[in-house]
Amino acid sequence: QVQLVESGGGLVQPGGSLRLSCAASGGIFTIYNMRWYRQTPGKQHEMVAGVSGGGRIDYADSVKGRFSISRDNAKNTVYLQMNSLKPEDTAVYHCWVDGNKNDGYFNYWGQGTQVTVSS
Predict the structure, then answer these.
(1) CA dist 119 to 12, 52, 74, 86, 87, Å?
(2) How do 113-117 and 10-12 pair as beta strands?
(3) How confident is the model at residue 27, as a pLDDT?
(4) Dihedral of the CA atoms 16, 7, 33, 36 (nearest 10)?
(5) Contact 27, 41 (CB under 8 A)
(6) Closest CA to 31 of 107, 116, 115, 111
(7) For residues 51 and 69, what is the distance between their CA atoms, to the nearest angstrom?
(8) In this structure, are residues 85 and 99 in contact, taking their beta carbons and an 8 Å threshold?
(9) pLDDT tens digits for the chain (119 residues)?
């Protein structure tokens, strides 16, 4: 059973920064893609940023230039550095990971971490 443990959410003032982490564990052989999504009430999941196993990085237009995604393959961990935060970035942020483990392909969601941007 793959487990994703997220951390780093919280309350921050507009213009501030937060760093989210998502660590994967549980019989993992290879991780392919690592992504961050966010969801607000009444809205669909929005992909915020993603990094592939080959290092390709994609960002939502709304966060380009402010957010930065990175991964540490030795730790099976993905990070999301969020700078210049705006009230509209308030959401529950989930990581999503896919790859191969001892019994085949997997994809899992993290439990979510709340990010609130407010003065």
Answers:
(1) 8, 35, 37, 10, 9
(2) parallel
(3) 87
(4) -40
(5) no
(6) 107
(7) 7
(8) no
(9) 889 999 999 999 999 999 999 999 998 999 999 999 999 888 888 999 999 999 999 999 999 999 999 999 999 999 999 999 999 999 999 999 999 998 899 999 999 999 999 99
Q: Residues in the chain, how many?
A: 119
Residue 21 structure tokens: 């982490």
Provide the pLDDT for residue 1.
86
Structure tokens given for 67: 């957010």
The Cα–Cα gap between 23 and 119 comes to: 30
- 3-state SS, the chain, equals CCEEEEECCEEECCCCCEEEEEEEECCEEEEEEEEEEEECCCCCCEEEEEECCCCCEEECHHHCCCEEEEEEHHHCEEEEEECCCCHHHCEEEEEEEEEEECCEEEEEECCCEEEEECC
Task: Residue 94: name the closest of 32, 35, 42, 40 by CA.
Answer: 35
